[in-house]
Amino acid sequence: MLGFSLSKILFTAVMIMAVWWVYRKINMLTGGEQKPKSKRKRKRANAEKVPETGPQEVEDLAACPACGAYAAAGANPGCGRVAKDCPMQK
Q1: 1 occurs within a structural domain
Q2: 69: in domain
Q3: DSSP characters for 7-31?
Q4: Structural domain range at position 74
Q5: Is the pTM of this model over 0.85?
């Protein structure tokens, strides 16, 4: 009754492939997915997107003695605590 036959397996495989194909076509039409590019085109496109940047500046952090939160050391922006006893307040 619930046995597997070659026709049932083929029908199921064809239906899965048809649903997948329709999903891809709808996705391409709505702009959700684009056709895959060749490796060479992908590498060239990625190389054009990444700008050449020099070394980035690194900012030191200092721990707040009252609460232990880290904040930028140079600008003294405060640790975010609103208590009056916080030494890192502006």
Answers
A1: no
A2: yes
A3: HHHHHHHHHHHHHHHHHHHHHHHHT
A4: 60-90
A5: no
